[in-house]
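Phosphonate ABC transporter ATP-binding protein, Candidatus Nitrohelix vancouverensis. Tokens?
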Amino acid sequence: MMTLQIEHLCKTYPGGSTALNDVSLTIEKGQFVVILGKSGAGKSTLLRCINRLVEPSSGEVVLGGESITSARPKQLRRLRRKIAMVFQNYNLVKTRSVLVNALSGCLGAAPWLASLFGRFPQERVDEAVALLNDLGLGDKLDQAAGTLSGGQQQRVGIARSLMQKPDIILADEPVASLDPETAHSIMRLLSEINQKYQVTVLCNLHQPELARSYGHRALALANGSLVYDGLPAGTTGL
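Tokens:
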């Protein structure tokens, strides 16, 4: 079972700012975990320490019994393929097509020459087309990603993450830039993906009402410390 363990995780940035202070968690496969907290609480740092986009100052992150924190480059690349990320600002190549952006989720597993030239097996292209159709983007395949609405761009980002075939999706404020109706549609989509694929989802939010609507479990961070770990219904007043 692909359990994620976070043990005594700390992060202090140059200059002495503490972003994470002794955070310990165990997250079982298939959970939908929402992480609440104000700006600067440590939410984004926590997600980025999990996949080592940010290096922890101390502590350990273990996925399926393997330490991410102490992994050497080759092992880290392999472990990162199991962890996809969805970003607030989408992180798409806006001048490239929707299909090419979705296919970029395959790059980590592709042979280096194929990665260099962006060439993908036809079966992966067919898979991406089917996935984009499922996400309501079938008529946008050849359209430049930057011409889409915010909600559509986030769906492309989610498609890219699914093409990675991850065990975990880290969603960093995926609806912060969206209107309320679109935010709910993206949260419903993440919930459906969680249930359909049994992919673990860790989702940073600053809206407790969304946490209560979609999460199985809620965490709250304040000043880098874990101050709540329980049912989303208990987040009233946070």
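Strands lie at 4-12, 18-27, 32-36, 58-63, 66-67, 83-86, 168-172, 200-205, 217-222, 225-230.
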